Amino acid sequence: MRVLLLGATGNLGSRILPALLAHNHTVVVFIRSESKLRNLVHSSAVDKCTIVTGNATDAIAIEAALVDNRCNALVNSAGLAAIFPWQDPQMQEIEKAVTTAAVGASKNFPIFAEHGLTYSLLLSQPSQHLQWSLLAPSQMVPASKEITLLSAPRGHGLVSANDTMPNYMNTFLSGLRFGIGIASDILVNALRYNTSLEDCADYMAADLAKDRSEHVGHRVGVIASGKGKKE
Questions:
Q1: How confident is the model at residue 114 (pLDDT cuts 50, 70, 90)?
Q2: CB 104, CB 178: distance < 8 Å
């Protein structure tokens, strides 16, 4: 599959790039700075990609990159979500630009968008124009500081579920009133859903390699296979 990747200089995107290549995808990288990418990712991986420079908030440039390079899939890992209300909500601007570009490009050929797009915005798009899935991991940490070309897919060991968190575990505090029980469950479970950037990157690349993904039109929760539900 020909994949346009946004955010390749980020923590997750830099791992998605070699994962996509390992799964035999053709990768077109859309970034602001090629030099930053080459300082971060080994040249053996970067040299196998087509580089397009541009801003992730520029819908016209993103659509042109999709059409000009005849990409039939898009992975967006650009931008950081604002944690506090006073921070710049850059993610929304990026998500709007990416979705607009993907729908526009779909008039030329089918396009499948994955990752980083707002759920409500995606739901509002006609399904005949855009097939999407939204990976929803918890905290992701790097398994390795070195980012280089992979000789084969590394595998991931993740368990997934559509529109829910797999193996979610209720605690003895669940029945507490005034929302305390729900909040306690979330805090307890949050530690269990930590995944690695590399696992999430491989999961996305492997899913794109399928003829038909079971995740189309869904949010996708993931957990490491060793963190199953305790009975």
A1: very low
A2: no
Exposed / middle / buried, residue 85 (Cβ in 10 Å: 0-12, 13-18, 19+): exposed
How many residues does this entry show for the chain?
A: 231
Mean pLDDT over the full length of the chain: 83
Which tokens hold the place of 99? 């979705």
Please state, in angstroms and rounded to a whole number, the distance separating the CA atoms of residues 75 and 206.
13
Are 56 and 78 in contact by the 8 Å Cβ rule? The answer is yes
The closest alpha carbon to 124, from 132, 116, 135, belongs to: 132
Please name the helix (run of DSSP H) or strand (run of DSSP E) that holds residue 100, with its range, or none. helix 90-105
Q: Measured on CA atoms in the order 72, 4, 132, 218, is the torsion positive or negative?
A: positive
How does strand 158-162 pair with strand 140-141? unpaired
Q: Are 169 and 126 in contact (CB under 8 A)?
A: no
Average pLDDT over residues 41-55: 94
If one counts every other C-beta atom within 10 angstroms of the C-beta of residue 142, the result is 14
- What is the tens place of the pLDDT at every residue in 152-184? 999 998 999 998 878 877 665 555 554 455 566
Per-residue DSSP letter, 110: -
Q: Is the pLDDT of residue 19 over 80?
A: yes
Cα(107)–Cα(71) distance, integer angstroms: 13
